[in-house]
Amino acid sequence: MARPPRQLTPDLSARHLFGAKMRVFRDRNGMTLDSLAAVVHMSRSHLSRVECAEYMPPADLPPALDAAFGTDGIFQELYALARREIHPDQYRRRMELEARAQVIEEYSGHTVPGLAQTEDYAREIFRASDPRAPEEHVESLVSARLSRQKLLTANPAPELVMILDEAVLRRPVGGAGVMGEQFARLIELADTPTTSVQVLPFSHGAHALLGGSLTLLTLDDRTTVAYEESIGTGTLIEDLEEATARRRAYDRIRGHALPPRDSAAMIRSAREALSDEHHCLGRPA
């Protein structure tokens, strides 16, 4: 028996409305996903995910749908709305995409990215972000963050590329002991078959990603999505044009970052300098 079609929720967002209208006109024209795929030159699985609002429609799909259904620009108008809206549950969506990613590329201007944080470093970050949070809430956040790191030991593991602004190394989080462990973790990840760490030195000056953080996820179907984050907010970017613009900015700063071995040397130097400073001040390292 054929599986019933998945129920759609057009009231959630413009992306969901796009998918629902796609099914309405597909059914009205007596077309299956397979027959529509042949007309618009896209895989059945990709069309299914667009219809269920799991994927952002690619830019060339709306005019192809309007031509196939004779809808006089309806899908292009829906796409113009969908590509500019914030995903209704974007953090969960980001986690789902991260789990599917074959390559994860990160730029961080202020803190070590979550996938590389040690337990104590993560705990200090969560405590600082909400000093009034109950300890059990902080611990639940730490556990959730550490659970994400299982991605790095999966088989196959995604490739993880991190670019850290030098400020990440110079700002002590939790003291010399916490930072020492975090530095050791970064050195471990600096140059392995599946991970690399590069430091963007202060000497480079201004750049397009200054003041925030960026994650690029290359998925199993080779599409790329971006996730931008600032204080307390994040934006998932699945529109191809906008994600490509973030890719260009990332590639530019990567060209100015130190190679992994030189970056590891700078991290070791930062660890030694922090330890020496605390010894000089008479504090335990």
TrEMBL record:
Residues 22-61 form the HTH cro/C1-type domain. It comes from the Bacteria. InterPro entries: Cro/C1-type_HTH, DUF5753, Lambda_DNA-bd_dom_sf. GO terms for molecular function: DNA binding. It holds the Pfam family HTH_31. This is Helix-turn-helix transcriptional regulator. It comes from Streptomyces montanisoli.
